[in-house]
Specification:
661 residues; alpha/beta; Rossmann fold; GMP Synthetase, Chain A, domain 3; 7-stranded mixed sheet; 23% strand; globular; disordered C terminus
Length: 661
């Protein structure tokens, strides 16, 4: 096997959570973790649920029931529970003083909330919500900075049997209002504002504007985060502290069926109307527990730090139903990761003893601009696992991250999934070898495959899932017809994620971008993200987004819009048309073109680190404005760098670790 950059030995091969699970449950070979049949699927997910300790009020009768067809699979049928008892209550009882959330903003403010303190906070809010008329089956809208009270609001909804919908606070008022309206929210929880990169955002005013598109919202609960003046006019505003004053710090827990709705999450809407995906109490716990335990190797007392913003699926699955359910601490860095300076993240890892750290590839490149050698300046020795998601890696960036952050000794869990799956399809684990940029192959418990246009197994094509998984959305808020059309209509009985996947000669899997984000350039099919990875991986570029433009000769040519680091002379960069990036192996041409406007059709892949339509899928965070950056049009195509990497890769059938079906 060529070009291995990391192999599991010692702790990872013998004592990691997944290695222990395989030993205790009798899985002798890694490929046995990838199910071929529905019976194997049920055995695996039943074992995952048992091993991670999901708390049941009444045990389930059957792990998975596909009697209504794979698109409408029911999970843990007959079981009754409330996700809050796994994610909060058991640890408030067992380790009450342990930190559930450790929060800090970019202005020097910090707080640590123990499991016991969080339960009191949640229960007071739950009792206040119930007294105000929020009932079982209602939906509470939440748009908030990355703060413990955002999670308290979500948990309070769960306590009384309500669901929540989380909305990224950086959205515009129209996008925010659509999500509140479509989800059926009657009450919205928010903060007065937040800061990012030293700039203040008035969130309350934006919510007020958004409610013009959400007439059913009658009440807005506002946490005074910054002390901004203002008042909502479109709905009745309630101050958080006054709202909860006088209510008991103990609340009754609503006991839910396993398939009762826990939350509604929305896709970005970059390729059409945002899709409202529906996730249940059992599915949230099954996905969050499995991925945090076996992929990120979290255990009680560990700490997770992921650079993101509230509203992405990461916050609901890994930071609410995942790490807390395992008894770990979740570190919340509100604001820009490089404010007040570029070492903020490394200080947080050192101060909080972080064991699992995740960031997008573009986010990593952004931090690298501030500090090339973070381990020389900070004690990062508590780290055990690295994580990433949201876009393809460039090889140079991947190697730098593994060496500079992980000292070349830590595995990088590069995850590809989606909002509609509440988790990953492809992902390494601490028990798999790694090549630069790889996703390894199917995640444990996921029957992933690659199909060509005809629905035949291929080494390049559409990423599909052949058996259901718990995180698959239970239809869409728009109804079953759109749900079937979006995910199940291309290949009979098979979920099409519409991501473009490739498998190399050693069986390692890669995602190069969206299948509908590909271009046919002179007969070669390329994806925007693989070009963006090449362009964005150069030191002269902060961010890059690529769009196809018709061409009489080649059919289509890619046009890149890029932003440059502060102080960079765009004319000087444009003149360097033949610079060879020897470290990454790319030749990137930057022709002499005038500066252009950033396209609004798709988000850029910069520090934001998010590909179109997958950004709420497993992503690294919200948009970041780069102060003083310039936008440049790039119209020359870099030579084929492979799937987010440099150099061509041979293709062959699957490796033993990703067996064909």
């Amino acid at each position: 096997m060529s070009d291995l950059a990391w192999e599991p030995t010692g702790y990872y091969a013998e004592r990691s959570s997944l290695a222990r699970f395989m030993d205790e449950y009798g899985y002798g070979e890694y490929e046995e973790l990838i199910p071929d049949t529905e019976a194997e699927l049920a055995d695996l997910w039943g074992a995952f649920a048992e091993d991670t300790g999901i708390v049941w009020r009444e045990p389930y009768d059957q792990v998975v029931d596909t009697g209504d067809g794979a698109p409408f699979a029911d999970w843990f049928t007959g079981g009754r529970l409330n996700a809050i008892e796994t994610a909060l209550d058991r640890w408030a009882d067992r380790t009450p003083d342990a930190a559930m959330y450790a929060w800090e903003d970019g202005d020097g403010n910090a707080d640590s909330v123990s499991y016991a303190a969080m339960r009191e906070r949640v229960d007071r809010l739950a009792n206040a919500l119930a007294d105000h008329g929020v009932e079982r089956g209602d939906v509470v809208g939440i748009t908030f900075p990355l703060h413990p009270n955002a999670f308290a609001a979500a948990l309070a909804a769960w306590r009384i049997g309500a669901a929540f919908t989380m909305v990224f606070p950086g959205y515009g008022a129209d996008a925010m209002g659509h999500r509140f309206d479509d989800s059926g929210a009657g009450l919205v929880v928010t903060a007065d504002g937040y800061t990012r990169g030293g700039s203040v955002s008035d969130l309350r005013s934006k919510v007020d504007d958004a409610l013009g598109d959400a007439p059913e919202v009658e009440d807005v609960l506002v946490y005074e985060h910054l002390g901004l003046d203002g008042e909502c006019e479109a709905a009745t505003e309630h101050d958080w502290d006054a709202f909860v004053e006088g209510f008991d710090a103990a609340a009754e827990t609503a006991v839910m069926d396993s398939d009762d709705v826990a939350f509604v999450a929305y896709s970005s809407g970059t390729t059409g109307e945002p899709k409202g995906t529906i996730h249940t109490h059992a599915s949230a716990l099954a996905m969050g527990n499995k991925e945090c335990r076996y992929h990120f190797d979290l255990s009680p007392g560990d700490a997770l730090l992921w650079i993101t913003d509230f509203g992405w699926i990461i916050t609901a699955i890994w930071m609410l139903a995942g790490a807390p359910a395992i008894g770990a601490t979740t570190v919340l860095l509100e604001g820009a990761p490089d404010h007040p300076d570029g070492d903020r993240v490394w200080r947080a890892i050192e101060e909080h003893g972080v064991t699992a750290f995740g960031i997008s590839p573009s986010g990593s490149r952004g931090l690298r601009q501030h500090n090339e050698t973070p381990r020389e300046d900070h004690d990062l020795s508590t780290l055990r696992v690295l994580g990433s998601t949201g876009e393809p890696w460039d090889e140079a960036g991947w190697r730098w991250h593994v060496e500079a952050v992980g000292d070349g000794e830590l595995p990088l869990m590069n995850v590809s999934g989606g909002t509609e799956l509440a988790g990953g399809i492809l992902s390494p684990t601490p028990c798999t070898p790694l090549k630069p940029g790889t996703l390894w192959g199917p995640a444990p418990g996921v029957a992933a495959n690659v199909y060509d246009e005809a629905g035949e197994e291929a080494d390049e094509g559409y990423l599909v899932v052949e058996l259901p998984i718990p995180g698959m959305t239970h239809s869409l808020t728009a109804g079953d017809e759109r749900y079937i059309e979006e995910y199940w209509s291309d290949f009979e009985g098979v979920w099409n994620q519409n991501d473009w996947a490739e498998i190399d000669g050693d069986g390692f899997w890669y995602i190069t971008g969206r299948a509908d984000d590909t271009m046919n350039v002179a007969g070669r099919r390329v994806t925007a993200p693989e070009i963006e990875a090449a362009v964005g991986g150069t030191p002269e570029v902060n961010e890059a987004t690529v769009v196809p433009v018709p061409d009489e000769v080649k059919g289509q040519v890619p046009v890149a819009f890029v932003t440059l680091p502060e102080g960079t002379d765009p004319d000087g960069v444009a003149a360097d048309t033949d610079r060879e990036d020897t470290e990454g192996g790319h030749r990137v041409g930057l022709p002499r073109e005038p500066a252009g406007e950033r396209l609004d059709a798709r988000p850029s892949r910069g520090a934001r680190g998010v590909p179109a339509t997958r950004e709420q899928g497993m992503t690294g965070g919200g948009p970041r404005t780069t102060a003083g950056s310039r936008t440049l049009v790039v119209t020359r195509t870099p030579p084929n760098p492979g799937p987010g990497l440099s150099g061509e890769r041979a293709r062959s059938p699957r490796s033993p670790g990703t067996r064909a079906r």
